[in-house]
Amino acid sequence: MYEAYLISSVVLYVCLFVAALGAILLVLFQQSNSDGIQGITGSSETFFGKNKGRSLESRMKKWTWICLAVIAVLAIVAYAIALIATKLLGA
Question: Which domain holds residue 62?
């Protein structure tokens, strides 16, 4: 029983690490949302502004949210498994 708990926790924590690393990298590669100096002068509509839904930036934001949701779900599952294991193993 303990071996199954140990294997499942290691697998969950490795998956959590990979998802967290993916989220960190996705956030680091995204551009800032602030306009900087262009916000003062007012910028004209650009090609990327019109096609924002199909741009790389949009896909990166979507994958960032997916990674964060995976992290949240895996953290809850890891906590539930640890809680069940402590009750079953009597630790």
Answer: 1-31+57-91
